[in-house]
Structures are given as structure tokens and as C-alpha cells.
Amino acid sequence: MDATSLGLSIDASAAVPPYEQLHGAVVDAVRSGRVAPGTRLPTVRGLAEELGLAVNTVAKAYKALEADGVIEGRGRNGTFVAEHGEPAERALQVAAADYAALARRLGVEPAAAREIVHAALGD
């Protein structure tokens, strides 16, 4: 997973420090379900390079996210989105993330992908 698929970007001209922007963006991505529990996050170095940030800035954001219980470090295995919510909600988040990834790979526009879900739900 990379910064683009996570929906992460940093506004260098914003009054909010980059580590706070990154922290907020990851929290938002997790709360909205765009990033499911168990999703592996980019390495600190990789994300820093991708976003044009200092490694220490990304490390500070990751440390705060881990302290908040949003992500969890698993040593050499990497950093992952922590489990949260009820089991049924977590299962739906994982399924939704898988569906979104499949739609992107197939080149399906987001609006069309949402229509397919609405039809499947009988909306």
C-alpha cells in the first residue's frame, strides 16, 4: 500500500505541521473504512520519500498513531492498521477494502463501483 492508495497527501503551505496532517489523514482513512484493519502500511522511510517528508516526521506521526491505538508495529513484519470496532464491522471493512482494490485494478470508476454495491444491497 502506498500514500496514494491510502489517500495521503501533505500540504506544505498549511499552518498544521506535516506530522499532524499525516496523523489526521491516517485516522480519517481508518475511520472512513478506506483502509481496513490488518492493512500493512508503508515503511517510515518509504512513506517519507513518497510524501517528500523527513524520516523523523513520519516516525513521529507513526509513534503518535501507535500510542492512539490506530496502528500497531509488528517488528520486522511492518506496521499495520490495528483491529478496531465490532467483528462484523471489521469483516465488512476488510471486504470493502478488497472490493475497492479490485475495482481500481479493473479500472472501474468509483461512482460505478458504488452503484454496483448499492444494487447488491438492494438500495
Largest sheet: 3 strands, antiparallel
Number of helices: 6
Strand order of the largest sheet: 1-3-2
Low confidence ranges: none
Structural class: mainly alpha
Distance between the termini: 31 Å
Average of the residue pLDDT scores:
89
Please estimate the helix content.
55-70%
Say what the CATH topology of the largest domain is.
Answer: Arc Repressor Mutant, subunit A
Kindly give the count of domains: 2
The CATH level-2 architecture of the largest domain is identified as Orthogonal Bundle
Dominant shape? globular
Task: Say how many strands there are.
Answer: 3
CATH class of the largest domain: Mainly Alpha
The SSE order reads HHEHHEEHH
- Specify the CATH homologous superfamily of the largest domain: Winged helix-like DNA-binding domain superfamily/Winged helix DNA-binding domain
The percent range for strand residues is: 5-15%
